[in-house]
Amino acid sequence: MQNCGPSAGRHLHHNQANNHATTDISTGIFLDHSGGCDLDHNVCNGNLGTGIYLGAAPNCSVEHNEANNNGLPHSYNAGIGLDMSPDCKVAHNVANGNRMFGIAVARSCGTVFNQNSAYGNEAYDLFAPDWYPDTAPPSCNSYRDNRGATALPSLEFWDVK
Questions:
Q1: 62-90, pLDDT tens digit by residue?
Q2: pLDDT at 156
Q3: How many whole angstroms separate alpha carbon 1 and alpha carbon 70?
Q4: How far from 152 is each of 10, 81, 83, 124, 160, CA to CA, in Å?
Q5: CA distance 41 to 36
Q6: How many CA atoms lie within 13 A of 146 on its CB side?
Q7: Which of 68-77, 100-109, 112-121 is the least confident region?
Q8: Around Cβ 152, how many Cβ atoms within 10 Å?
């Protein structure tokens, strides 16, 4: 399941998008310019790209998904990634063993991260960089009860209410 967009108000649930390996950008679920979407109970494991990716998809809900073992070695892929997707809800997801990040967000202010679990990812389990030139700081999002061994910002920040 790739390249679902542009669309609005779509509900993607109980899908499996595993082992997409045709190119180095093969992504499990890729939403582009698809605001207001709900993604829940999807399984995206073993893809060469990111498991679940939202780009320019504001006001989406990404809940109860599994995205494990995605990405090429030393790539900038993630289990779950959001870019330019503000005001989303990312909750109750599992993202383990991915290359490079478990759950990553950039340029997506107003996003709420709640009770996600990410362990054993190559660089960071939970990643909210502030080094993108035009991004808002990660502190513009809300993080509560997320679990991971490594995080940027630090784990203490991830539990800020």
A1: 999 999 999 987 788 999 999 999 999 99
A2: 44
A3: 15
A4: 31, 14, 16, 7, 13
A5: 17
A6: 35
A7: 68-77
A8: 19
Cβ neighbours of residue 85 under 8 Å, at least 6 residues apart?
Answer: 54, 55, 56, 57, 58, 60, 105, 108, 111
Dihedral sign, CA of 12, 17, 22, 25? positive
DSSP state of 43: B
3-state secondary structure of 110: coil
C-beta separation of 27 from 37 below 8 A: no
Q: Per-residue confidence at 128, pLDDT binned at 50, 70, 90?
A: confident
> Domain-by-domain residue ranges, the chain?
11-158
Share of the chain above pLDDT 90, in %: 58
Note the pTM of the prediction, 2 decimals: 0.86
Distances (CA, A) of 119 to 68, 69, 71: 10, 11, 15
Tokens coding 128: 């909210």
137 vs 69: CA distance, rounded Å:
28
Query: What would the two tokens of residue 8 be?
Result: 């609005």
